[in-house]
Amino acid sequence: MRTLQHPVLQYRWHVKETNAGAQLVYFGLRNPPNHTRSIIPLPRELADGLQLLDGRTSANDLPSELTDHEMYARLIAEGIIVEAHEIRQPSSRDNFRQCVRCVTNDYVLPGLEFDANGLCAFCQCYELAERSGQGVALQEGITDEDLIRISSENTGSRFDVMVLYTGGKDSTYLLWYLAKRLKLRVLVASWNMPYTNDTCRENMRRAMRVLPDVEFVERTLPWNVIRRAMRDQFERVGHPCLCPTVAHALFYPLAVQENIPMIMHGVEEVQLAVMNYVMTEIKSGQPHKEQIPDHRSDTLNFLRMITKTPEPPQPYSLTADMLRHMSSVRKLLTPVYGPLDDILARAENDPNMPIPILRRLKSNTVYGTWAKAAELMKQEMDWHMPPGQKGLLHTSCRIEKVKDYCQFKRFQGAGTTFFPQSVVELGAGVYFGLVSREDALEELQELGYYHEPQVLSVLTRDLGIDPGHGQVPGEMSWVLGDR
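^ that's the sequence the OP posted. Answer follows.
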């Protein structure tokens, strides 16, 4: 066993107490094959001892219950416990390490590891999944053949598919692809969220003119209801967002009422990159067994997740924040979920009850690149970008940068293991060929990571939040002022 004189936990490792006992948690992404080993259960005596590792205390002065523990030796061998001078230092906005292939860096993603060639742990996971053939087909993209078959078999509805539409690039492409290219009968459903940008509202109106045979429906929620829910979201989960969970609660019952066989949403494959390639335990060398997913079960599982979400059993898992977000939205907007609750109960009691299946396009295949998709939408749908925006990652929401900033601050402060989404999606976009590295590097500067977004002050004023009151580092950047 290697002997350390002044041992300390490596940067971004923390001992956390949970209902399941003490755990050693890594707030970052480790290089494969350790990328799935970021939460390590600890015996009580070891957890107490690890709290003493400050990098100044000599190993000779540490309790023998710690230094003689078999697991202590393994943690040293794995580089989790290191000599004090070996601890990594936090990166800064001006001094950080960036992936040689994509655009992720260890300032926006502190704790991101790189291999000897400078390839980030995300790209290593993507490569590993591609080589082994075991990238998980989570929310598997649907083929044109399946779409056309479903349409040809659909005799019980006026519509073949419902599209959840925001007026942004992805959902506009989806609408065009289904209604204009494949000639399906589409019902377009839009939630009139107060912070949808004006350009995308106009894109929706232009879409109605370009597609005069397509039916559109729009729902709103009272502004005071939204305002209260967004204020409470700041307090509960550290950011104000309600999307896209509310859209499913609003429109899934309509799809059931209209007997629509399928609902399509504009989620890109790169938005599922972490779940598909990073969270999966990949066993290299074993042949991949193709499995046909049960899309009805997948849909019901998703509906259960957004309607019955309990507290995450593992509070520091990568999915914990997503589950908290869905649970919080459900609690704040419970009356909105009544029709969806009823549908889920009936579908669970009757396995033969037809329900709309949630699907998405194979965007990595059909897009070509984001730039080509956007140019095609300009030609085919008279689609416009928001003024002054260059990046194509998120184009519909005025407060997207607030979400970026809040996620970054919470992750930076080790308040969550949930990676800031946009930078991961942008990096995956580069890896899978949807955007050039040069364009992505430019777009990265537009995201809400490097300075406080100007729109934050507008949002906090709208919601009646005092941004300077009671900051709690690592948990949330702002708490509510007097109500």
